[in-house]
Amino acid sequence: MTTPPSATDGLEEFTQLITQEEMFGDPPPAADPGARRRRRRIALLVTAIVLLVLIGVPAGYTGWALNAPLGAPDVDVHAPAPPPVPAAAAVSLPTQGAAAVAVAGGDEYLGPAASGIWASSGGDEPRSIASIAKLITALVILDRHPLAGPTDPGPTITFSKADHDLYDQYYVRGATIAAMPTGSSMSLYDALATMLIPSASNYAEAVSTWAFGSQWAFREAARRWLATNGLTGTTLVEPTGLDARNTSTPADLIALGKLAAANPVISSISATPSLALPGPGPMANTNDLLGSNGITGLKTGNLGEGTYNLLFTASVPVGTAQPLQVTGVVLGGATRANVNHNVMAMIDSIRAGFHEVPVATSDQSVGTLTTPWGSSARLVISAGATIFTWSDTPISVEMTTTTPKSYADGEEVGTVTYTAGPNTVSVPVEIDGTIEEPTEWWRLTHPGELGG
Q1: What angle do CA 264, 266, 270 make, to 5 degrees?
Q2: In this predicted model, what pLDDT tens digit does every residue of 324-379 receive, in sequence order?
Q3: For residue 283, what are the β-bridge partners?
Q4: What is the pTM of this model?
Q5: Within 13 A of 319's CA, how many CA atoms are on the CB side?
Q6: Which has the closest alpha carbon to 133: 279, 7, 44, 236?
Q7: How far apart are CA 326 and CA 164, in angstroms?
Q8: In which domain, by residue range, is 194 found?
Q9: How many Cα atoms are found within 13 Å in the side-chain-facing hemisphere of 21?
Q10: In this structure, are 210 and 286 located in the same domain?
């Protein structure tokens, strides 16, 4: 049974109601269950978003930091300094008499002037040439009676009684002579060889008279030949060289030497150390330097002490693609031995001026690679090298590098090129050492240095 409310209970409810209205205004309407559910869902969604932010942002940063690309290492390169310039080469020239030398085949190293008069001493005044005159005599004869080459014997010369008498005449004068029996015959090639190899003076006069009919006609032909070939500093008064008035200058003799070397008959004869022919018999070349230091010719000459001469050619290997072709002359030497010494010293000094110069050494440092996280490696020349050059030719250096692909030890990243005259040599530049990856901790704590 329900107990009816008392008056006191009613008063308390009324008092509470009045109090709520005074304090809060109108009482809130009864709660809507649907709105309550919507508010709960919104609260859950906001909470989820906040949790995702609080958890997802650090996780995303970590993933980015651990996988972000790294900037390239800093590269500091320094091309190696040019190697020291070698000492200048000096061509050895005699201090007595006069000398001159020309060099062909080395213009890239020595300059185009080398094929003219490249070096000289003692001035360019005319001096007695002695038996070098026989070289002119032979060239003048061949100008009138040319031969096809050393295998062409040419016309046959038959020696008369007058020719035979020349043997005695030159014997009395103390000249070099070779047998020439009356009625004997010889090819022009062999007669020229007898004139040049042992330097037989009687053959020089006999063959020049045969070629032109008289000594006067020969001298006129020789004068014209000298003028035609520009040898204006040369005088020839007779064919043997016994007359001291047969003179020439060092410059003219260099030109004469080139003409003789270009003539296949003369170059073949002058390069022959010895021969034996019927009549003259065995004969030795007066140029006893043949075959030494590349010497290939040409002609000796002397009129006694202080007048020893040698006009020579030489093929001198020095390391160039082809041997140098040297033409030289020494006039007025004290003795034949002195002249030979001077010629050998001249050739030696030319050869010594060409050399290999060390320009690079293996493991030579030319730069560094460094990273913000402390890993580093060197850039080094991976092989030694030398360059072939002449004398004190300056050597220039050029270095080129490329961006490494792997930054691994041994990776080639450039070249260093050295240049001296016409020659260049290149050596590779490699990485020495490996650029290590940064630690995860470094990545997480250096966000500003990532993303390069």
Answers
A1: 120
A2: 999 999 999 999 999 999 999 999 999 999 999 999 999 999 999 888 888 888 99
A3: 275
A4: 0.79
A5: 15
A6: 236
A7: 39
A8: 98-333
A9: 7
A10: yes
